[in-house]
Amino acid sequence: MAEPLAFKRIMVKVSGEGLMGQESYGLDKATVMAIAEDIKSVVSMGHEVCMVIGGGNIFRGVSVAAEGMDRTSADYMGMLATVINALAVQNALESVGVQTRVQSAISMNEVCEPYIRRRAMRHLEIGRVVIFAAGTGNPYFTTDSAAALRAAEMNCEALLKATQVDGVYSADPKKDPNATRYDRLSFDKVLAEDLRVMDTAAIALARENEMPIVVFNMHGEGAVTQVLKGERPCTVIGEKE
Fold first, then answer.
1. Model confidence over 61-117: pLDDT tens digits?
2. What domains lie within the chain, and their CATH numbers?
3. Is 185 exposed, middle or buried (0-12, 13-18, 19+ CB in 10 A)?
4. CA neighbor of 30 nearest in space, from 38, 49, 97
5. Closest CA to 50 of 107, 119, 102
């Protein structure tokens, strides 16, 4: 059993694919509601929560149409997909009684707030969950980079990255039966061994701000809650070498 994680303000990064459930693309209502219930539990524990959600589940559905597009146009399509996911998670959270705000790096005032750091900080201070959409607002940056950037701007104590496996391994555990899971890693080792937990820009930003990254399996009931309580295995990336 892992140790409880004593972080007050956290960033939770969920991939778009994590919202698909058993579907090939799009949103699975039961999965989205399970994430909402999990975040509700985390908030009830006294944590301040912000989120970044990827857009792969939606962009996968239009990927054929995007073939041959220039990178910038495709990236903007992906940003818009993250807004759709953010609104879906916002609706799920509010349906279980959690006050939520979506802030977008691309202005679309009819559906969500523009990203304003001071306003986002205030939302967190009064117990609202803030979901940051549209990445950084710039092409060529992933939602992992957006999560690390917003987490640093919000003075988060940790970035929790929900994945398909229960931590970081020395090799792909699906391909290598001898792969071992790390309980703790340094930023330097992640970069030196190209372990691909997140993109290098996100790792470097977290390292610069001395902000731990917690990697865990998002599947199953109450994943984030269990990680914070020390009831679910995870890998903590934190110290410098």
1. 555 556 778 888 888 999 999 999 999 999 999 999 999 999 999 999 999 999 999
2. 9-237 (3.40.1160.10)
3. buried
4. 38
5. 102
User: To which H or E segment does residue 201 belong?
Assistant: helix 200-208
Q: Where are the alpha helices (DSSP H) in 10-142?
A: 29-44, 56-59, 63-66, 71-95, 117-125
* CB-CB neighbours of 29 under 10 Å: 11
- The residue with tokens 């009831």 is 231
Here the tokens at position 70 are 């220039």
Q: Which residues in the chain come in under a pLDDT of 70?
A: 1-2, 60-66, 240-241
Q: Angle at the Cα of 100 (from 230 to 143), degrees rounded to 5? A: 70
The token duo for 143 is: 């939602």
State residue 229's pLDDT score. 96
pTM for the model: 0.94
- The two structure tokens encoding residue 204: 């470097």
Contacts of 118 (CB under 8 A, 6+ apart): none
- Pairing between β-strand 48-53 and β-strand 113-114 as defined by DSSP bridges: unpaired
Beta bridge partners of 11: 50, 159
| Contact of 181 with 169, CB cutoff 8 Å | yes
Query: Bridge partners of 48?
Result: 9
102 burial (CB, 10 Å; 0-12 / 13-18 / 19+) is: buried
